[in-house]
Amino acid sequence: xxxxxxxxxxxxxxxxxxxxxxxxxxxxxxxxxxxxxxxxxxxxxxxxxxxxxxxxxxxxxxxxxxxxxxxxxxxxxxxxxxxxxxxxxxxxxxxxxxxxxxxxxxxxxxxxxxxxxxxxxxxxxxxxxxxxxxxxxxx
Length: 139
Fold this sequence. Notes:
By secondary structure, this protein is an alpha+beta fold.
């Protein structure tokens, strides 16, 4: 019984520490690297916005994006869309890593990424698609 209780206390304290870490992280921290990543993402957003609106691209539950419906894009444009999605995901991954590093806690990256995943979905425009617990959902 003591082992079970000790395991529960350890699990609870670990979960609490993870939640505290995200709450303590400065998600608005800014460094030259973070500014460069945000600039790259902003420049690409114009290219992706129409694909979010058409449903071709959706927000994933892990803070990235994915081609959700390739058939919504003409065949001749699919390669450039795939390249834009790959570049966006690379930037998003770098952003989460840089924010964690700028906070002095690179180990917080998974929690920061999870927090951003929720934020991206919350800020998505009506009509955009995102991954919910049971699959793709239209906002």
